[in-house]
Amino acid sequence: MVIRVVKSNGELEDFRPEKILRTLRRAGADKRTAREIVRKIEKKVYDGIATREILRLVKEMLSEEQPHVAMRYDLKSAIMRLGPAGFTFENFVAELLKCYGYQTRLRSVVRGRCVQHEVDVIAEKSDGDFVRAMIECKFHNLPGGAVGLKDVLYTYARFLDLNEFAEEGKGERFDEVWLVSNTKASAEATRYAECRGMKLICWRYPPKLGLEKMIERKGTYPVTILRSVDRGTLEKLSAAGIVLVKQLLECDLSRIGISKARLKKLISEAEQLVTEERSNRQGEH
Amino acid sequence: MVIRVVKSNGELEDFRPEKILRTLRRAGADKRTAREIVRKIEKKVYDGIATREILRLVKEMLSEEQPHVAMRYDLKSAIMRLGPAGFTFENFVAELLKCYGYQTRLRSVVRGRCVQHEVDVIAEKSDGDFVRAMIECKFHNLPGGAVGLKDVLYTYARFLDLNEFAEEGKGERFDEVWLVSNTKASAEATRYAECRGMKLICWRYPPKLGLEKMIERKGTYPVTILRSVDRGTLEKLSAAGIVLVKQLLECDLSRIGISKARLKKLISEAEQLVTEERSNRQGEH
Q1: Do the Cβ atoms of B5 and B52 come closer than 8 Å?
Q2: Which residue of B lies nearest to A198 if distances are taken between CA atoms?
Q3: Residue A156 to residue B157, Cβ atoms within 8 A
Q4: Strands ordered across the beta sheet of A199-201
Q5: Three-state DSSP class for B224?
């Protein structure tokens, strides 16, 4: 019997157990656990099952076996939970880039030749040559959303408008233009970005260092990956400028209006994730 | 007592009877009728009334007095009824431009330097200097929508991409870039378009020849302005390439699947509108 799964965009594709195995291993599950889960899933799937239903089943099983791997497995949904608005995602991108040595400014109003623009993130780096990047963040709060051609077109036009003003000697010049998104980009958007030298950082794109790999490499997980972060907690953390799990362990959390009991739970979850993270990465070397 | 009206975007503004008078007169109502209607409306409004409720009342009263003026008064809603998708609006824009002496091509796929683009309308004119315009149509099917900065930015980037390819001697060069919409444009979008020499044709913008004036000047009303055009009729007309009231009187309608009774009604309404239109315009001279 053929088993097909329904993807979030409504498309059908054949069920491929090796895909689950790969994702599980990438999230850090050990071989034995990963194989065991795939075996269990194979018994439960049926023709027409939704990918999100498979995701739910896998997470459930993984939580029992390796709870902290389960959190990481959930990275894509965790980032979506930074919504519904794009505000917190912009903060997240800025914090992520800090871990890569950039200095960042959020939501700056910058004058261009024709109009003023709000630039989501300005990132600057000065080891070696100085680089200033104009970064547009494109957040989608539903799976299946994608960066389209219009998004890269308007971002590029904004970059031109800003730099034309700078060339008149009146403003900051941007050396690079980036578009960062939590979803995929269409083939056309990718081609346009490549052709214009625009840096596109999306989900699993570029394959070698997409958003998910940038996060995993530095362990800069969003707070929404922790199970005890609900809507209200996220709002309080976000208002206090905390979007990364790492920050939970570095910042003074006593005055942000979260109860002691919940704080304790939060910090314990954060510590477990960071510890496991560290030993995992040492294991890789 | 202060009476405020709720606009379609949710904003409040003071009720101004002279605004209704002006719109009525612009639609062609005679002075006596217009004043009479305003008097009746003043008795019916209450604090917090929606503008669309006022519109409904005015149309009702106007239909009794001057039925064909009532149709024109309804122009904005008639254009929205070309939706929900933007397809028929593109056809409408192309037909409108033909009345201004342009030759038009719809939804052409044109190669740019980086990617291929679908251009909604290509319009060419050759009386005097030859002009080729790339036209992006932005249709909103709800009142309150507006052309924003991102729309003019991506349209301009598309124009650049197409012309950079043309400069390599490989494609058609566009002399002008236009954006046509059935709603208003934001102040930023307007400023950017002006600065880039982009032609912006929106609702009441530019003030001297916005979309509504372009339509009124040539009497190129959309078929949706006729009361007997419902959803199903519109689909059949649209499939047959008919979007203007004028076309109803010029084309062979016998084979497009509309019943004889309805056709008769349609044509009678169209004839009344066109006749009144003509005498109105003669009256203006």
Answers
A1: no
A2: B114
A3: yes
A4: A103-111, A116-125, A131-138, A176-181, A199-201
A5: helix
> A196 CA to chain B: closest CA distance, Å?
8
Least CB–CB distance from A157: residue in B113, B117, B153: B153
| Residue pair A229/A74 in contact by the 8 Å Cβ criterion | no
Side chain identity at residue B78, one-letter code: A
What is the CB neighbour count within 10 angstroms for residue A247?
Answer: 17
- The Cα B218–Cα A237 span in angstroms is 59
pLDDT in tens, chain B (285 residues): 689 999 878 889 999 999 899 888 887 888 999 999 999 999 999 999 998 899 889 988 988 888 777 877 788 889 999 988 888 999 999 999 999 999 999 999 999 999 999 999 999 999 888 999 999 999 998 877 899 999 999 999 999 999 999 998 888 899 999 999 999 999 999 999 999 999 999 998 999 999 999 998 898 999 999 888 988 999 999 888 899 999 999 888 888 889 999 999 999 989 988 887 777 666 554
Distance CA A141, CA A218 (A): 24
Please enumerate in sequence order all residues whose Cβ is within 8 A of that of A154, keeping only pairs 6 or more positions apart, or say none: B150, B151, B153, B154, B157
Give the closest residue to A104 by CA, choosing from A215, A178, A189, A157: A178
A100's CB contacts (< 8 A; 6+ apart) are A214, A218
Reported ipTM: the value is 0.84
Residue for token digits 């889960």? A37
In chain B, residues with a C-beta closer than 8 Å to the C-beta of A117 are 149
Q: Does B188 touch chain A (CB under 8 A)?
A: yes
Going by the DSSP 8-state scheme, the letter that residue B45 receives in this structure is: -
Whole-angstrom Cα distance, residue B43 to residue B23? 19
Whether A164 and chain B come into contact, CB under 8 Å, resolves to no
Kindly list the residues from chain A whose CB atom is less than 8 angstroms away from the CB atom of residue B116: 188
Distance in angstroms (rounded) separating the CA atoms of residues A229 and A81:
10
Contacts of A162 (CB under 8 A, 6+ apart): A110, A111, A112, A113, A117, A119, A134, A171, A172, A174
Dihedrals phi, psi of A167, to nearest 5 degrees: -65, -25
The values of phi and psi at residue A127, to 5°, are -80, 120
Q: Which helix (H) or strand (E) holds B118?
A: strand B116-125
Contacts of A267 (CB under 8 A, 6+ apart): A248, A249, A253
Q: Determine the Cα–Cα distance for residues B99 and B13; give it in Å rounded to an integer.
A: 37
Distances (CA, A) of B85 to A112, A243, A255: 34, 39, 50
Task: Select the residue from A110, A111, A113, A114 to test the B interface by mutation, using most B Cβ atoms within 10 A.
Answer: A114
Q: What angle do CA A30, A31, A32 make, to 5 degrees?
A: 95
Q: Which residues in chain A have Cβ-Cβ distances shorter than 8 Å to B186?
A: none
Alpha carbon distances (Å) from B236 to B120, B240, B257, B260: 21, 6, 7, 14
Closest in A115, A160, A188 to B191, CB measured: A115
Give the integer Cα–Cα distance in Å for A76 and A53. 15
Nearest C-alpha neighbor of B247 from the set B87, B99, B106, B103 = B99
